[in-house]
Amino acid sequence: MTTASSPAQPALLRTPLHDLHAELGARIVSFAGYAMPVSYTVGILAEHRHCRAQAALFDVSHMGQIALRGERVAAALESLIPIDVVGLRAGQQRYGFFTAPDGGLLDDLMLTRLAPESPLGDWLLIVNAARKAHDIAHLRRLEGPGCEITVLEDRALLALQGPKAGDVVARLAPATAALRFMQGGHHALAGIPTHLTRSGYTGEDGFEISVAASQAGALARELLKQPEVKAAGLGARDTLRLEAGLCLYGHDIDASTSPIEAALGWAIQKVRRAGGARAGGYPGAAVLDAQFAQGAARRRVGLRGLELAPVREGSELVDEAGAPIGRVTSGTIGPTAEAPIAMALVAAGHAAPDTVVHALVRGKRLPMRVSPLPFVAHRYLRG
User: Nearest-CA neighbor of 326 among 292, 354, 304, 303?
Assistant: First the structure.
């Protein structure tokens, strides 16, 4: 029942795989306005371990897919994104982010330069579900002759992740065996046209697969027929990405966090930094160039618990004397790391490896050690 003080909530959006999730016994939760599977009948821990050992299939169709077409797109995108867009080759993908005038992160994203014959356009941009409407409006300011923007509402996005993912995809499309990390192209999987990239959000080898919404269910079922593949939900995706040291927007990074504070400066290529051939020209460039030169006042770090208790997002961090030095942005018990792990934003003076800090959890001080990221080594297929 709704009242004047409790207005009706908008109905959750459903991905094209919603019926399949129900069939597989998924536990559905609300995430970024969508009804999404957090786990299936075997549970998060088993799904996490299966991804590390075999191949897990995730539905990430809530993400935004945006196609761009025209000769002006590359230069236009460089006015919003501080990465080397112009230098991307056809079939190459790159991680990046939108920045604000104060250097804050408006969203992070994946950008692919498509092959000239692509039916989707010249470029494909994947953005976070919770920031999709903002990002589309942000991009619209670029529209004009030579820069056409199309939101791909009729496509789904699947992620097949794990050490056996390459074998599975190559079985269905042999030419994909030649792809390496952050490369992609158009390939038919079991006769179904897709655009896929060898990338993902787990630290494992794998693929993100864009497919027409009308064919997503058939493709997912074909992938699940493969002996190595099982379905996995958002719960395992979160524990996997945290072990891999990968940021989640709205948690580890947001508009109050700069790329330098977030330890993402590596994603800004030298050509876009001070002294580079195409330096600056994007929002916050002066702020970020200053942080490159002088350092930032705080830093994203990894933390490994020295006791067995988990430390969750939002926990305050203090130094040995009890003075506040930061906060935990993501935390869990790492199934593969076999320890409490977390990422945090801490004062730069406490960001050195092996520094011991203390998390305040229910009135207790839990010691944690600053540890290198990732907690579990990446196994991307390179070279």
Answer: 303
Q: How far is CA 38 from CA 21, 263, 264, in A?
A: 10, 28, 28
With beta carbons less than 8 A apart as the criterion, state whether 105 and 288 touch: no
| Interatomic CA distance for residues 185 and 191, integer angstroms | 15
Does residue 372 have a cis bond before it (omega within 30 degrees)? no
Contact 311, 333 (CB under 8 A): no
Q: How far apart are CA 377 and CA 82, in angstroms?
A: 27
Distances (CA, A) of 106 to 47, 52, 131, 163: 31, 31, 8, 32
Cα dist from 31 to 15, 72, 130, 177, 212, whole Å: 12, 35, 8, 34, 22
Is the pTM here over 0.85, yes or no? yes
Q: Which amino acid is at 193?
A: P
Angle at 39 between CA 38 and CA 42, to 5 degrees: 170
For the chain, the C-alpha Rg in angstroms (whole number) is: 21
List the pLDDT tens digit at each of the 383 positions of the chain. Answer: 444 555 667 899 999 999 999 999 999 999 999 999 999 999 999 999 999 999 999 999 999 999 999 999 999 999 999 999 999 999 999 999 999 999 999 999 999 999 998 999 999 999 999 999 999 999 999 999 999 999 999 999 999 999 999 999 999 999 999 999 999 999 999 999 999 999 999 999 999 999 999 999 999 999 999 999 999 999 999 999 999 999 999 999 999 999 999 999 999 999 999 999 999 999 999 999 999 999 999 999 999 999 999 999 999 999 999 999 999 999 999 999 999 999 999 999 999 999 999 999 999 999 999 999 999 999 999 98
Q: How many CB atoms are closer than 10 A to CB 224? A: 13
